[in-house]
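From the shared-data thread, chain only:
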Amino acid sequence: QILESDLIKQRLPVLSEAADVVGDVQVRNMGTIGGACAHCDPASDFPAVVLALDGQIKALGSNGERTQNAAEFFVDMFTPNLEPDEVVTEVRIPNVGDIAGATYQKFAHPASGYAIVGIAAVRTSGGDVRVAVTGSVPIAARLSAVEAESSGKDLTEDNIDAAAEKATEGVDFVGDLHASEEYRAHLTKVYTARALRAIAG
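Structure, as tokens:
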């Protein structure tokens, strides 16, 4: 539904773009954006996109409803900020009209489709830039050093290169049999630059 919605394609196409690179057709037909967020898989696509969009996540449990910012919701690997009796009911993207550009750039594992590295980037009409990473880190997270380096500036090639160099600052990378920490760190810089170029226009 996210992939094919005309409304989403018109108002927030980055969600459709991200949905199009989740797993394969069978996974996309079974999965949900709420489930992807609640699972907190370190290689999942949607958490980074929701973070970069400054999203909010609403949960319902025996004590009622509560809404959290995505940055508060993603606690750790496979660990959302949910009580045992809570279930995610909504993913909200506020201030959609303020988004001037958004993209999700992904280097996928060729068999599983999971992100070895995924970068979501958003530029507001005021020139603020928000960037989030998944796949190369224990949990999807904002790249604050990149945001500080690129917000309020023209996204020229030089500024993009300078911001992408900041993509590894303050970040703990994960390594496994698919890609080492060093390789994921390198790809994080590469895909941050690609994402910034995509929103520059």
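The two ends are 27 Å apart (CA to CA).
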